[in-house]
# Entry
Amino acid sequence: MKTFIVLLAAAVMACSCGRQETAPAAFTVETLNKATPVKDQGRSPLCWLYAMLAVIESDRLMMGDSVNLSPHFTARAMLADMAGRSYLTQGAEPVRADGTAADALAAIAGYGVMPYDAYRSECNYDALCRKLAAVAAQAVAVRAGMERLRGRVDGVLDSAVNPVPRRVWLYGVEYTPRQFAASVCDPSEYTAMTSYAHLPFYQDVRLDVPANRLGRRFYNVPVDTLEALTLAALRAGRSVCWEGGIDNGGFSFADGTARLAGGSPEVTQAARQRAFERFEVTDDHCMALIGTARDGRGRLWLVCKNSWGTDNPYGGLMYMSLPYFRLNTVAVVMKAAKPAPAHVGS
# Structure
């Protein structure tokens, strides 16, 4: 793909997404996958859904199919199930709206999706989770049973999020949410990967981070392989869901960059392991990676689509340095086969 300065890259985004954005020419874009307009998750903890859906949207756009998906429908369905589990476990299972990118794939497979314009919300999810937990606790106290609980939960969700349309209409075709999901995404095509040395490499492992309450499995590979697979996917037109740390310095939405403080030292497997075990890197945020770029010194950066609105120098996009990626990535999800050990150092 030809090299474009970021000003022209913004124009490409505008052509594919119907919006006009400009940004300072601080980076030279090498590859830029098509993407839907930047969304704003507000104060919700749904970045994991916004990011994974953004990757699916981008993948469909690169295939020539336009689709824009609602995170709120999938979140609502997930919270309804959580309320049921909280009831049956008598409060042992929490009702929470955070999660991992792997949770997003499972939720899409289990509940389906809806178009963004068909199901929107400005819900306060923290307040909603507290209310659903209270509803489940009240139902436990009177031994209400699942049928009565579901009726109460649906009422709370209708009020807080929005009532759910029974069907999805798109291009004159009627779908259920699961049918619509099947038409735009096969979750089994995506692989969730991580890179930590306390777990066996080239095996599916449980990633022990607080948001992974449901015990999702991630394929564990060395960080060199994780980096190589991510770059290969982006350069082949496949976007990547990034999950990682943003609270240990160097991440600035206002500046539109994520870089390591004090320059860009080499980040080894041992260095990222130490940062993870000392809780210097935690599972804070998810974004969609949609391209690659170079700075004025020729160093490689990743182009990120965030979900915090458009109020930054790049219209909501961000640029992540490779050292930042190597240190702060907790997990990625992409369309890729699980690599064999021969890919180490590729």
Q: What stands out?
A: The two ends are 22 Å apart (CA to CA). Residues 66 and 171 are 11 Å apart (CA to CA). The chain has ten helices and 14 strands. Residues 1-23 have pLDDT under 50 and may be disordered.
